[in-house]
Structure formats: structure tokens, C-alpha cells
Amino acid sequence: MRETSPAAIKSEPEEDNGFYPSPQHNKTSKREHDDEDSEYKPKKVKTEQDKKAKKRKYEYEEDEEDIKPKKKTKDKKGTDGKKGKKEEEEKWKWWEEERSTDGSKWRFLEHKGPVFAPPYDPLPDKIKFYYDGKQMKLSAPAEEVATFFSKMLDHEYTTKDIFRKNFFKDWRKEMTSEEKSKITDLNKCNFSDMNEYFKAQSEARKQMSKEEKQKIKEENERILQEYGFCIMDNHKERIGNFRIEPPGLFRGRGDHPKMGMLKRRIRPEDIIINCSKDSKHPKPPQGTKWKEVRHDNKVTWLASWTENIQGSIKYIMLNPSSRIKGEKDWQKYETARRLKKCVDRIRTQYREDWKSKEMRIRQRAVALYFIDKLALRAGNEKEEGETADTVGCCSLRVEHIKLYPKIDDQEYVVEFDFLGKDSIRYYNKIPVEKRVFKNLQLFMENKQPEDDLFDRLNTSILNKHLQELMDGLTAKVFRTYNASITLQQQLKQLTCSDENIPAKILSYNRANRAVAILCNHQRAPPKTFEKSMQNLQTKIDEKQNQLSAARKQLKAAKADHKASHDDKSKKTVEVKRKAVQRIEEQLMKLQVQATDREENKQIALGTSKLNYLDPRISVAWCKKWGIPVEKIYNKTQREKFAWAIDMAEKDYEF
DNA sequence: TATTAGACTTGATACAATCGAA
DNA sequence: TTCGATTGTATCAAGTCTAATA
């Protein structure tokens, strides 16, 4: 788990350096391309790309190849590269087909059900548990839960009061009455023998021979082949999470009141299976039954169960490369593109609404301004005491913002400081328009710090309003829209045509980073960060020394040539000059790398790349500059974005 | 209309696999 | 070939939003 660092991530006002989508910056969007046709219609696709696609419409016929898993591509150094490539080419292009119009998600669904966690394997007798200094043999159920705790001994979790309290309470439920009467104080429990045993086990796993490792790998592959795929409407599709979550201790993030509780083992009796009636139903393990087998094609999941910590439902669903996920993803970006067309209107409107006579409308308008300008999340209400205390826009409280009429040469500054999703801190100090500022003062009047800032607003009211402004518009569309438009703008701004590929990729990363900062996607600085920076610096220093040495040599060679004027010395000068040039380039590359890494210290690029950036923007950029798409997307990402890679041309505009 | 269950996306992180320098 | 660093993948928690229910 990560601690929310006190270090301000977004403390500098100059972070508002132009790429924040403020209303002013986007005044131009109206006159940009008019692509009425490229709009995504939920029922029928009609993008330009698609029209093209339609022309070469691919008539799909069921064929063995198609329901074969993409197995060969999994093999690392292609035992059969050619075949892998061939299969790649033959991959089903679902985006060239019509979508269903009746709200059903599939017509046929067949799968083998989930893979269960292995049963508990009791500890060898020589591994002891001690209570109050005395050795004690635990019953199997109590021992299993004890192992969960013992495995986490090195983790900060086990030092936290709530974690320990919750764990102990749930552990006691698993004990026999005899154990229960004996074990009454967690502080008297000694799990260290168990802890060392598990450490040794994991060490041994690392030390396994190649053959043993290979064997495990093959077994995993076999399970993947058997359970990792389903057949949905004639196509073999990869399942995302076909393994049931094993039992363990709940690791809530932030100050979670339920951390340490026992996540119980899921049995077949807990599982609801979803598949089509006319499919081969998955068989429950010997001697067990499913909770239910249903045939609901209005949903996408293959299996579900209710988890015991929050009582929420968990699902087994398909991989992001699947048709069902891809269509939805595509649709998401098309909705964001529709927002692009009317965002000016919406902005004008909410600015008008800041002046409304009605408090609820003013609150709605200010909240929407934050969602738009700062890419805040909607902020649903949460049940108190059930989860960590985190907020989003609509659930902001008075204590989360501070108002400064004037600070550091800026007027009307709002300082945000709150914990958002996953208890990640959002800190930002930003000047706003006078009207927003005055409204905020008004909203805060006569309120306690723990009162809601927007007391007349919630996500449902906000989204209802947004729905009226544009079909399909919700708060999160703004995040998608602003992320994607920022990427597009930044790429335009940062890419220099005369730069080489690494420099262009740095530009791409910087554009990506601008989005990650906007969306506040943080990461804990890698444990090895300082060290790896140091290593890099050492390399840079060395390179610099090399460079000055090379320059000296060049100078000497020049002097030599000046004196002798012969061919040999001329050649030497050339050689030395080239050497200097090469070293300069290497140095620059290292420096670029250092910059990139430093800038990325606490920024995570992955989330925005995967969830917020219209992949067609990136693909178009690659095509425009002749950059292999592999430099931007790894294999998994290419599978997820296959639709975009196939359809986006270099002139694609978000 | 308000509440809650349900379905699905988004998110950080732990761990495994791979890479590249020594 | 080994080992530490880097990258990729799996995991599962925590959001958003919709639809069902009271």
C-alpha cells in the first residue's frame, strides 16, 4: 500500500502552462473539421474509417483458424514466426461488422467455468506457531488464516491497529473453541517461523532449475488453454480473469476500516455461471454444484460471485482484446468526440449558470467547471465507515479547499487538497475566474469544515443535467475528452519534424505525461529510483569526461594538421571530429533519458494510455512520423487497440 | 423519488519475465 | 552466465453509472 506523500505533486502554479483545457484554449475547436459522419452511433457504425472498411467488408465464415487461440504468438522467440504472423493477419476484425441493435451482448456463449484457488496445503509439522512463548498446533482452518497473516509480516499493514484488530476478530471465527479460549491476544502470537518458511519457499521457487520452471510454465499454459478462452458468437475469445480470487486478508487502500478482514474462500456453490442455453455448460468440480446457471445475454460476464468484505459482486469477464470490450472502448471515444463538437456551447452555458438565481444551478455549474478544467472525477456518495474517506468533485467538502483572494501575484486562487480514488492525494493550487471564486465563498458561508461544499448537488443530478446537454454525456466523458484532446494538442506542439525517432518518442512521452498530470495519475517513486538516477548520472559524467577528452584530441589533431597540412593529419581530424559528434549524441541521449526519468518519477503513464487516450490519435501520430507502433504500444496494448491500429490513418483527428 | 444492487471501467501495485551490463 | 534494473502482466480494489426496487 502506498502512503499519501506529503510532497505536493501539483504545487507549482506554472503547471497551468497551457495544456489544461481551459475555455480560452478551446475556442478554436468549432471551426475544426466537420466530421458529422464519423460520429459513433450506438446502433450502427458509421465512421469514415468504417465506410472504408465496409467496402472491403470481410465476410466472416466460421473456420477452425478463428477459434484457435492466439497460441503461437505467446511463444516467445517464435518457434514458428511465419505461422504467428499468418494468424496475426487472419485475426478477426470485429470492427468491420455490424453491431447488434437489440441490447443483447451475445447470441452464443460457451466456456469451461472458472479455475478455483488450490485447496489449503497444511504446513509441515516442523513449522511451529507459538503463543505466549509456547508452541501450539493449530487446527487446519485456524492455521490457514494464520498463514495469511504470517506472509504479510514484513508489510506495513500488519503494524496498523485496524488491520490487526480486524484480522484477529476474523481469525478467531475460524478457531476451534479450545483455540479461541487460549488465543486471546494477537501480540502474544509468534508467526515468525511460518514467515521464514514462506520466505524460504519463495526463495526455493526462484532457485528452481530451468526444467522445473519450464514444467510449471507448461502447466500454466495448459490451464490457460483449457479455461482461458470462451466461445462467443463463433469466435474464440480470451477471458480476462478466469481464476477465482484466492482467500486472504483484505488489503483496502488508504485508511480503510475493513483492512485485515478475512476474504473467504470461494467455492463452486458461490458461483453463478452465465452461458447460453444451447452451449456445453461448464462442469462444477467433482462433488460440487454451482449456485446457479443462467442464460442472460444482456450482460457480458461469464461467472460471478458475491465477495464477503463489502458484499459486492465480482465478475469474470473477457480480455480487453475481445470484441465486447473493444466495441465499448471505441464507443467511449466516439462519445468524447461528440463532446468535442458541443463543448463550447456547454462551457458558455455553465459560465452563464454561475450567475443563476438558483443556488443548485450555480453549484452544478461550478462543479462542472472543475470537472472540465481540472478533470476531476464525478464523486459519488459513499457509505460512511464502509470504505476509506475519499472524495471526488460532487462530494468535496469545505475542508478540502482553501480560498486565497490574492497570493503569489495571482488573484482568486483555489487550493485543493483531498484524497481521491485509491486515497491518492490531489493537491493543486489554481487561479479561477472571479465569479467562480465568489460563488465558492458563497457556498462555504456558515458551513463547518466537514460539510459538503456542493450541498445541493450529487452525481445523479449532475449527470441528469449532462444527459440533457448531450446524449450519452456523463461526468467521466470530460476526463476522456480532455485527456485525448490534450494528447492531440501536445503531440502537435511538441513533435519536431527534423528530430530523430528517440527524440520524437520523448515528445510522445511528454505529451502522455501532460495527460497523466492532468488526470493526477501518480505512482510511488520506484524503490530503486534514487539509485538508478545516480547510475545514470555517473554514466553522464563519464560521457562528459569522454567528450572533453575527445575534444582535446580533436583540437590537437587540428593543430597538427595546421602545421603539417598533409592528408594523413586531415583524415585524423575527420576521425576525431566524428568521434566528438558521436559522443555528443550519446551524451544527449543519456541526458534525455535522465530528464524523461526524472520527470516521470511520480507519474504513472499507463492508466491514461490504457483508459483515456483515444488510441487512434497515437496510431495516426505514428503513421504520420513513420514511427513503428511497437515503440508506443507493447503487445498487449496492440491487441487491445487492434481496432484503432487497423482503422486510423495518419490524418485522423480526434 | 431515493436507495440500492448490479455491471462495468479505472486504478495502483505486487510479482514475473525479460533485458542488458558486468 | 549472473544479477540488478526495467518492463510487462495479473490482481483485485475502488471508482462511475444505470437499472431495478421500494
UniProtKB/TrEMBL annotation:
Its EC number is 5.6.2.1. One of its GO terms (molecular function) is DNA topoisomerase type I (single strand cut, ATP-independent) activity. GO terms for biological process: chromosome segregation; DNA replication; DNA topological change; rhythmic process. Keywords: Biological rhythms, Coiled coil, DNA-binding, Isomerase, Nucleus, Topoisomerase. PROSITE patterns: TOPO_IB_1, TOPO_IB_2. One of its GO terms (cellular component) is nucleolus. The active site is at residue 612. InterPro entries: DNA_brk_join_enz, DNA_topo_DNA_db_N_dom1, DNA_topo_DNA_db_N_dom2, TopoI, TopoI_C_dom, TopoI_cat_a-hlx-sub_euk, TopoI_cat_a/b-sub_euk, TopoI_cat_euk. Residues 1-91 are annotated as: Disordered. Residues 29-51, 76-91 have a biased composition (Basic and acidic residues). Residues 199-226, 533-600 form a coiled coil. It is found in: Nucleus. Residues 249-626 form the DNA topoisomerase I eukaryotic-type domain. It catalyses: ATP-independent breakage of single-stranded DNA, followed by passage and rejoining. Releases the supercoiling and torsional tension of DNA introduced during the DNA replication and transcription by transiently cleaving and rejoining one strand of the DNA duplex. Introduces a single-strand break via transesterification at the specific target site 5'-[CT]CCTTp site in duplex DNA. The scissile phosphodiester is attacked by the catalytic tyrosine of the enzyme, resulting in the formation of a DNA-(3'-phosphotyrosyl)-enzyme intermediate and the expulsion of a 5'-OH DNA strand. The free DNA strand then undergoes passage around the unbroken strand thus removing DNA supercoils. Belongs to the type IB topoisomerase family. This is DNA topoisomerase I.
